Amino acid sequence: MRNILVFIVRYHFLLLFVVLEMFSITLLINSTYYQSSALLQAGSRVTGRFYTTISNATDYLKLRTTNEHLVQENALLRQMKGVSFLRNDTATFWVNDTLYKQQYKYIVAKVVLNTVGKRNNYIMLDKGSRSGIQKDMAVITSRGIVGTVVNVSENFSWVMSLLNKHTRISGRIKKNDQMGTIIWNGIDHLYGTLTDIPAHVKIAKGDTIVSSGYSYIFPAGLMIGTITDFRVEQGEHFYTIPFRFSVDFNALQYVYVVKNLMKDEQAALEKSTEGLKDE
Hints:
Blueprint: H1 2-10, H2 12-31, H3 33-61, H4 63-80, E1 85-87, E2 100-102, E3 104-114, E4 120-125, E5 138-141, E6 144-152, E7 157-164, E8 169-173, E9 178-184, E10 191-198, E11 208-211, E12 223-227, E13 231-232, E14 238-245, E15 254-260, H5 263-272, H6 274-277
Antiparallel strand pairs: 1-2, 3-4, 3-15, 4-7, 5-6, 5-15, 6-7, 8-9, 8-11, 9-10, 10-14, 11-12, 12-14, 13-14
């Protein structure tokens, strides 16, 4: 207590000055609207900048969480799209009054390992069997097809990307529904090749290539790339069609693993009719 009294006695002129200044500022603010408005605006600008800086710093630190939330939301939206549902349109049988039954489920995963410069390139994801991922599931992004799951552990998945000599998927030219096979040239991670398109078909640079849907793995209509050139080799009756992948394989971060909920039913039906196809 004695120290406080000594401080007041020693600095009583300074303390009196501060009190009078505060009193004067209060009178100034309350005296006219202009001074009051100007000072309040100045104070608001200072505090606004401070809180804006804090908010920006906080948002930056939360970018990873925000990004994860966005991809989770995108996966949910994909599951709500019509391409993820099988039409169950019948005049005599309805289940829960629904016209569509969900066929595809999307699981978000993060890329933890990725190669693009090898002849056979693979990708590792941070989700495995614990998250419901199984072998032979499609892997895609919002920009198009990435590859196929070829091996799974409890917490990780191994994906064979389209940048692999063993990859063969069915694709079609969107404008005319012509079917072909997607392969990689083994040279540039930006470009692939579409084969098996008859030479009489009219195509043009810029035409879109999408998934055919003729498999148990990839939904139909997923983006694969755009045609950059086309030619017919001497003595051949089919085009060789270079195209640019819609996915930048060197910039992958998050992907969607696609589960076909009706795959087992489709495979069982095909197996049961194998004998009929040979007749």
